[in-house]
Write a structure and sequence with these properties.
203 residues; Protein Transport Mog1p, Chain A; eight-stranded antiparallel beta sheet; four-stranded antiparallel beta sheet; 12 strands; 18% helix
Length: 203
């Protein structure tokens, strides 16, 4: 399925809206609510900063590639857009950060039918949700489709299991990447909190 089709699929399967005070005032109809601190609480399980205006939420139904994320369509030739997500079950099975990163990149963007080979530009240890993490930055180009992508993936742990946060920014091959989206993503990850134990931690 090509990316344009994937975005249409998101529209059909997902709940998409532009964040705003009026929307956030109806928690009975939404999987989130605004806290007294001004943060967003998702299904009473996750808490994080509210993304700025211009970012729309994408919630994939059960069985999708990730739980929820935020999308921003940007100026420029198609496919100028950025999306960042939280993923409870990133590709792979290893419980070691470096090994999981290698496993992840074997399938990352595969579902979006992107044929470009991603090149890892930077890998570094980070602190995320109060524990050890790994941040990876990668870029790739598809000269046939005239598209390119820049991604930042952060791997962390929830209990013994590895989870991830990642941002993917698409551009026409002659376009420029926008660092402001990565700044929003970094703040999202830095603010992220688990409000309760996961299902696996209760076993």
């Amino acid at each position: 399925m090509k990316r344009k089709g994937l975005m249409i699929l998101f529209a059909l399967l997902a709940l998409v809206w532009v964040l705003g005070c009026a929307t956030l005032q109806q928690p009975s109809e939404k999987p989130y609510r605004l806290s007294e601190r001004g943060t967003l609480i998702w299904e009473d399980e996750f808490e994080f900063m509210v993304p700025p205006s211009g970012w729309s939420v994408v919630q994939v139904e059960s069985g999708g590639e990730f739980g929820f994320g935020f999308l921003r369509r940007e100026r420029g030739e198609f496919p100028s857009q950025s999306i960042f997500v939280y993923d409870e079950e990133p590709f792979g099975g290893s419980l070691k950060l470096e090994e999981r990163s290698e496993e992840f990149f074997k399938r990352y963007l595969w579902a979006a039918a992107i044929s470009m080979n991603l090149k890892v530009l930077e890998t570094k240890r980070v602190n995320v949700v109060g524990g050890e993490g790994l941040a990876v930055i990668a870029e790739g180009k598809d000269p046939v489709k005239k598209e390119k992508v820049r991604s930042k993936i952060v791997f962390g742990k929830r209990g013994e299991r590895i989870v991830s946060w990642y941002l993917t920014q698409w551009r026409h091959i002659d376009g420029s990447f926008d660092p402001s989206a990565f700044e929003v993503f970094d703040k999202f990850v830095a603010s992220f909190k688990f409000l309760k134990k996961s299902f696996y931690e209760t076993l």
